[in-house]
Amino acid sequence: MRRTLFEPFKIKMVEPIRVTTPEFRQKILEQAGNNPFLLHSSDVLIDLLTDSGTGAMSDKQWAGIMIGDESYAGAKSWEHLESVVKELTGMPYVLPTHQGRAAERILYNILGGVGKVFISNTHFDTTRANIEFTGSTAIDIIYEESKDPELDLPFKGNIDIESLKQLITQYGRQKIGAVIITVTNNSAGGQPVSMRNVKDLREICNQHNLLLVIDGCRIAENAYFIKHREDGYAHKSYLDIAKEMLSLGDAFIMSAKKDGLVNTGGLLTLRDEALSVKCKNLLIISEGFTTYGGLAGRDMEALAIGLTEVFNEDYLHYRIRSTAYLGEHLKAKGVPVVWPIGGHAVYVDAGKLFPHIPIQEYPGQSLVCDLYTHGGIRSVEVGSVMFGKYDEDGQLIPAVNELVRLAIPRRVYTQSHIDYVLDVFDAILELRDQKRGYKIIYEPPFLRHFTARFEKC
Ligand code: F0G
User: Fold this and answer.
1) Does the CB atom of residue 409 touch ligand 1 within 6 A?
2) Residues 286 and 341 occupy one common structural domain
3) Ligand 1 near 126 CB (within 6 A)
4) Quick one: which atom of ligand 1 is closest to the CA of 126?
5) Do both 195 and 291 map to the same domain?
6) Per-residue pLDDT tens over the stretch 213-252
């Protein structure tokens, strides 16, 4: 394994991290109900909660902030953003929003409704929530083998084409609101989707006259995997690969907080004029006028620049390899991780790491708490705390896997920070058998992981 990863940037401004002790963190975590979502970020040393909106902007983006045009209508910064997005997507209608879920709310409000069905490789939580909120059903279909966390396959994010055909026959074209391909597939380990898969999907959508939406907030990261794993793409640029994929879609939704390399922003782009008019009406009612959505001019300027920087070869190589660096070294230590490593995050299989902790005592929450107390690292449980349900007798219906996500913010942490994370895992591994589970002492009715409180068993 190559040890040194070259970070292709210099640091021009620093944000100090307050170094704390395990005793302090133990106390603070207990006060926060053993739920890292309830911690103050100033008490966190390395924040791996999400890669969303947590990245660092470049000097050029900060310079763009200073020349942001704040005009209400037809701002120069909007024209800059619109031209970059049209060039990337090849779609004529571009709608800016304040973040990804706002774009989802607009599109799925129009396409959804009671009795409609949406089919995706995996709907992200907010995508599913926006669809279900309209009374529609959201169905996830990835290949069976992709569900095995250990199987080494190049494109575990792919949609299951055979299941899609069956669902189309089962529900009929009229009932299907859209087919959504999420690249990379965040909720399935950040795994990539192949170009072949999207081409096959396009063909089926053509045959049945179905709308194909690309949820592409990590489209540049996905392009990296295509170039390095799929036949015929080795000599193409990342930008051309992304353009080719987007040319296959009817609509593109992007949370710009990821591969837009900005702290907030979202996009909805469309090919169909009639649909774009409906969406623009909702945009104006709920987000803002069509030339700013929910964004300031300076946000749009920074996003226009970010969308160009993200396809830089050195950046993408560093980005994907630095995530893999953490994952590969964890695996080498014997920490079970979802394999292969995805683009934006490493997913640790806490169920396998702590086999002595019963699922009802949430092994993932135990690891999340340990990472914080041992090392001040904040992560998120993606297991039965997040996805668990109760049966009629109040017994836990567990999630498929008990995972913990270590999401890597873009251009924020150096290799030494990641080496530090690896050292913290060493400390946890040494005490592995002594780790205990947690019980929930408070939980709200929905999305309990955000505010639930826990006690050690
Ligand atoms: N789609 C995908 C695939 C996402 O990963 C996210 C956000 C969204 C849509 C919603 O975008 O947050 O801008 O409204 N994912 C974040 C995460 C929150 O932590 O994975 P948003």
Assistant:
1) no
2) no
3) yes
4) 10
5) yes
6) 999 999 999 999 999 999 999 999 999 999 999 999 999 9
Q: Locate 325 and state its tokens.
A: 């660096």
> Where in the sequence is the domain holding 401, given as residue range(s)?
22-51+312-456
Would the CB of 101 count as within 6 Å of ligand 1? yes
Is 13 inside any structural domain?
Answer: no
Asked whether residue 284 is assigned to any structural domain, the reply reads: yes
Same domain, 110 and 193: yes
Q: Say which range, 18-22, 217-221, 314-318, 442-446, has the weakest mean pLDDT.
A: 442-446
What CATH number has the domain bearing residue 400?
A: 3.90.1150.10
With a 6 Å cutoff on the Cβ, whether 222 touches ligand 1 is no
Look at residue 77 and tell me whether its pLDDT is greater than 60.
yes
Tell me the C-alpha distance between 194 and 399, whole Å.
Answer: 27
Nearest alpha carbon, ligand 1 atom 5: 186
Residue bearing the CA closest to ligand 1, atom 21: 100
The 10s digit of each residue's pLDDT in 268-304 is 999 999 999 999 999 999 999 999 999 999 999 999 9
Task: Give domain status of residue 282, yes or no.
Answer: yes
Task: Say if ligand 1 is within 6 A of residue 36 CB.
Answer: no
**What is the CA 392 to chain-centroid distance, rounded?**
32
Q: What is the DSSP letter of 56?
A: P
Which pLDDT band, with edges at 50, 70 and 90, does 3 fall under?
confident
pTM: 0.96
- Looking at residue 2, its pLDDT comes to 59
Number of compact structural domains in the chain = 2
**Cα separation, 245 vs 219, whole angstroms:** 9
Which residue's CA is minimally distant from atom 11 of ligand 1?
100
Query: Sorting pLDDT into bands at 50, 70 and 90, what band is 10?
Result: very high
**Closest approach atom of ligand 1 to CA 257:** 13
Strands 377-378 and 46-47: parallel
Please check whether residues 316 and 267 belong to one and the same domain: no
From 126, 181, 263, mutation site for ligand 1 pocket: most ligand atoms within 8 A of C-beta = 126
Which CATH number fits the domain that encloses residue 122? 3.40.640.10
Place of tokens 């969303």: 52
Q: Whose CA is nearest to atom 1 of ligand 1?
A: 124
Measuring from atom 2 of ligand 1, which residue has the nearest CA?
A: 124
Tell me how far apart the alpha carbons of residues 6 and 120 are, in angstroms, rounded to a whole number. Answer: 36
Nearest to 92 by CA among 269, 248, 253: 269
